[in-house]
Amino acid sequence: MLNGFPNIRHMRVFIEAADSGSVSVAAKRCHLSQPAATQAISRLEEYLHSPLLVRRRDQFSLTPSGAAFKRRAGQALLHLENSARSALRTSGENNKRQTTFDRSITAAQLRNLIAIANAGSFSVAARNLGLSQPTIHRAARSLEEIAGIPLFTASPSGIMLTKAAETLVLGAKLAQAEIRQGMEEISRELGEDRGTFVLGSLPLARTTIVPQAVHAMVESAPRLQVRVVDGRYPELLRSLREGDIDCLIGALRYPLSADDVEQKLLFRDALAIVAHPSHPLANKRNPTLKETLNYPWIAPPKETPAGQYLFNTLHIQELDQTPVRVVSSSMILLRGLLSQGNYISVVSRHQIGVDERLGTITALDIPLEGHIRDIGLTYRIGWRPTETQQRFIEFLKKFSATSSS
């Protein structure tokens, strides 16, 4: 993707021309001369490396690339408008400024705002963008001047965003994600099918589902790049909501952790009490959960579904002396520790499928109750995947079904 945003005014002129079929009408609506409006559309086409409008008889109509980009550009501008208004409402600013704020923001200001939010510092943001610190600082202050509200406050560790600025950043990132998808749809129309899919992956899906889906996608779309982002659920959910990742695969949460996301069930998975095959309980018939308490436990973090089961259902924390010696959700660490000593853990049965076949982890013969978990995909509400992205989602569904059978 080019560096984040095309010129916002150019996008507005293009949308008005597409809606009206007339550049002169678009110029009037955007308070520009007709030559300026024509130049704005030409500049946008240069930026996107594709024609967007074509004259047919006495009016303009959209090219296939133009139709694809118009949908995304319109949604991007709506994100900016809504976030600008929400930012002003958050600060208690009156309604008069709401009609001009989002139309006064520039692409450069949004690019800089996102960089500052990600870096937490003017100097680090400047370095990341290849600009001088005074340039970043001036852009930040000019954005505050346009908004008429404070957006940044100094802190001992750098720069903090006000609540209004956080709202504006969210809209800017979502707009940026829409534009990225629009540009990828243009590349598909041009026969290049270049693009990206950014998948947030929780531990369970990393073992087989994601590798199989990624390999199938690479084979079917050689120019698509798949980025897999590992992390804990709260961080991945935030990245999803901000548009930094496209969707999230892993254990579903009930109730939903945010009102702007939705979940889709793929399959149901069971938990198991596990140990190394050489563990004293590994070959014992009908071992009991009580017996496992004589050995050191590796517990998943309490906020994970497996951790919640351990603490809320098995009540392991209520014992006089907890057997938990290590807390981690890392499969790499789990494998290593189980091979080192007589450790016990609770983990997804699907997650250890490969390890069971390799003989490095075994599930103990201990029945559990109420341990079935829903595994699926989490999206932003209203998110529309490109055709290429949808193909990858279908691969995720296919290999999820295979893994659960």
Automatic annotation (TrEMBL):
Sequence ranges assigned to domain HTH lysR-type in this UniProt record: 6-63, 105-162
Domain of life, per lineage: Bacteria
Pfam families named among the record's database cross-references: HTH_1, LysR_substrate
Keyword terms, alphabetized: DNA-binding, Transcription, Transcription regulation
Keyword DNA-binding: yes
Family: Belongs to the LysR transcriptional regulatory family.
PANTHER family noted in UniProt: HTH-TYPE TRANSCRIPTIONAL ACTIVATOR BAUR, HTH-TYPE TRANSCRIPTIONAL REGULATOR
Protein name: LysR family transcriptional regulator
